[in-house]
Amino acid sequence: MGDFAVKSLQERSNRQQYLMQLLTDVRAIEKMLHEDYFEKDKRRIGAEQELCIVDDAFNPSAKGPEILSKLSGGHFTSEIARFNLEINLDPFEFRSDCLRQVERQLITLLGKAEAYASDEGNHILLAGILPTIYHSHLRPEWMTPQTRYQMLSDVIREMRGKDFEIHLQGVDELIASLSSVLFEACNTSFQLHLQVPAERFVANYNWAQLISGPVLAAAANSPLLLGRELWMETRIALFQQSIDTRSSINHLREKQARVFFGRDWLKGSIAELYKEQITRFPFILGTKHPEDSLQTLTEGQIPKLSALGMHNGTVYTWNRACYGRGGGVPHLRIECRYLPSGPSATDEMANFAFWLGLMNTDRSPYKNFEETLSFTTVRDNFYRAAKTGLHTIFDWFGKSVTAQSLILNELLPMAENGLQSLQINQNDINRYLGTIRQRVEKEKNGAAWQVKNFRKLKECFNVGVGVTELTRGMYERQRVGTPVHDWPDINCTRHYIVNLEEETVNKLMSTDLFTVREHEPVALVESIMQWRNIRHLPVESTTGEIIGLVTATNLKPIRELSKDWQSRPIREIMVKEVVTVSPNTLLRSAVQLMRTYGIGCLPVLVNRKLVGLLTDTDLRKVPDLLKTPINE
After folding, report:
1. Whole-prediction pTM
2. At what angle do helices 98-119 and 426-441 cross, to 10 degrees?
3. Where is 371: in which H helix or E strand?
4. Domains in the chain and their CATH numbers?
5. Fewer CB within a 10 Å sphere, N or C end of the chain?
6. Is 205 helix (H, G, I), strand (E, B) or coil?
7. What's the rounded Cα separation, in Å, for the pair 329 and 302?
8. Between 375-388 and 201-219, two packed helices, what is the crossing angle to 10 degrees?
9. Overall average pLDDT of the 317-340 stretch
10. Residues 598, 621: contact at Cβ < 8 Å?
11. pLDDT in tens, 217-261
C-alpha cells in the first residue's frame, strides 16, 4: 500500500505545497532522463506477496495486526484489511538461479508467517479472492488501524459523494455497497517487478501491455466473491469498481477510472505516464516528507521523488511504472499488478517465469507492433482474459486465436528463449514453464479448479458450507506444495462438521429467497409455496424491510374460517412479530432461538433488510446438529 507517512490535503496550504513538490518531481525525473542518471548495467527482479489470514474455520481472521507485530525482519507489512498481510521480497539480479532464490525466500517467509499465525489459531492462505469473505467482514472495524487506509477511504468516498458500489456479472450477478473502500481488501495479488533500462522503458512498457491478456488467462485464480461465481479473474472488475471516484451525473463525459488498463501506447517516456496521471486524477494523499528534488540533484544526491511516488501509488494501472533508488543509484521498473495470489507458491513462480521470459524475449516477429495492432484491441484482450480465463479467444493481430493455442504454440517458446538468453538455469526453466504448459494443456488453472469444485460442493451442501470446504481444500493442497494442475478434486461425500461455538448463521442460511408484499392475496402466496415446495415466505415492505412471515401453519385457519380466503390480503394472517438474526449470529444461538420460540425459520437481516433465511431444513443438512426436533 506504499508510504504510511501521509497527510491530508484538505487544507489549502498542504495541497499547494504538495502540488509544487509534485511538479518539481516531474521536472527532476525529466532532468535525470535527459542527463542519463539511470542504472544500465544491472537488471533486477522482485515481488510482493499479498496473503490472506484465516481462522480454524477458514473464515477471515481479524488478527493480522497482532500477527504482524510478532513478525520481524522488515519483509512484512500490513494491508488495508485486518485479514491480509503483504510480504516484500528482496530484489535479485535477473540471471542464473534467480528464480530459485526468489522461490526459496518466498517459501521461507510464508512458512514464517504460518508459524506465527498458528500461534493465534490462524493459517496463511494464498487466494486471489478469499472464498469465505462475507459482507460482514467488510465493515469498518475490519479495516487495519492505519491512518493511510482510513484517509484513503474517506477521501475517495468524499469524491464519490456516496457509498462504494459494485455491480458484477458473470455466471451469477452481484450488486452490493459499502460505506468504506474495503471492497478493495477482497483482492489479493502476487505483484512482479522487473528493472528495465531507461532508454528501453517505452518499448518494454508497451510490450508488457501487449502480453497482459494471455498471461492473465493462464494465471486466473479469482472466480468467486461473496458466494457468487463471477469472472475467472474477478479482481480486475472488482478493483476498478471498488475505488471508482467517478459519478454517474456526468455520464456523457469520457472520464477515466482510477483503476485502468491504459488509453493508448506510450510514445514519450516514463515522465509522460506521470504527467497523464497528474492531469487526469485528483490528488488523494499528501506526503509528510517535503523534498525539493531539483535541489537534491544540484547537491549531487539522488531524490526520493516522494510526491510523485505518492500520487503514482494512488493511481492503479495494471502495469505500473515505478521509480526507485538503491545503493544511491536510480532505476526504473515495470510492476505487473494484475496477477492473483496462489493457487500455490509453485504456480506463482511459474507465472513469474512466464512473464519474465516474455518480457526478455526476442520480439522481432512483432516488430513495430504498436503500428500494426490497435491498443483498443489489446485492452479488449485483457478484459476478455479476466472474464473467461483459459477459455478466452483473443484477437491476435487480426486473427481469432484460443488462449490455449496462443500460449502453447507461440508464447511459451518465446518465454523459454527469453530466459535462456539470460542464461537462467535450464532445469528451472523446464520446471516453471513446464508447470504453465501442463496447466494450459489441461485447462486447469486456479479459477477452473475452484469453479468445478464450488459447483459440486454447492450442490452437496449449500453456498456457505461450499465456500468453507473449498477454502479448506485450497489450504490443504497449498500445504502439499503441488501446482494446481495436479490438485485432486474435493471429495464432497464426507459430512460437514459444524463447530457451534464458532460457526455463524451465514454458513447455513439460504440466500436464494422468495418474498411477497403484504397486499398480495392468499391464493398467490399459497401457490408460490406449493410451486417452490417451501414452508416459510417472508413479507417485505416496499422499501425492502421485513414486516411479516407466512408459514404453512398460518394458511390452515383462513381456509377453514373464510369463504373468500383466496382473495384476502396476506397481511391478515402473517406473523407480524418476527424473530430475526444477523449473519454473524452464532448457530448455537440461532438453534436456541428456534427451540425457545418453537419456530422453524429465522429471517436473517442486515440493516433491517432481508439477506437470508435459516430454516430447520437448512440445519438438518448438517448431521447431529439438531438433537431435538424444531417445530414449524
Report:
1. 0.92
2. 70
3. helix 369-372
4. 6-340 (3.30.590), 446-486 (no CATH), 505-620 (3.10.580.10)
5. C
6. helix
7. 7
8. 30
9. 95
10. no
11. 999 999 999 999 999 999 999 999 988 877 665 555 567 889 999
Buried b (16+ CB within 10 A) or exposed e, 213-233: bbbbbbbbbbbbbbbbbbbbb
Nine-digit cell string for 139: 465493515
Q: What are 466-525's pLDDT values in tens digits?
A: 999 999 999 999 999 999 999 999 988 666 667 767 788 988 898 889 999 999 999 999
Three-state secondary-structure class, residue 488: coil
Q: Which amino acid is at 484?
A: V
> Residue type at 392?
T
Kindly report the length of the chain: 632
DSSP assignment string, 290-340: ---HHHHHHTT-----HHHHHHHTTSEESEEEEEEEETTEEEEEEEE--PB
Closest by CA to 135, choosing from 191, 185, 209, is 185
Residue 626, judged by CB atoms within 10 A of its CB (0-12, 13-18, 19+), counts as middle
* E strand or H helix at 354: helix 345-359
Within the chain, how many helices (H) and strands (E) appear? 21, 23
The two beta strands, 316-317 and 286-287, are unpaired
Q: Please identify which residue in the block is written with the cell numbers 513538490.
A: 21
The C-alpha R_g of the chain, in whole angstroms, comes to: 27
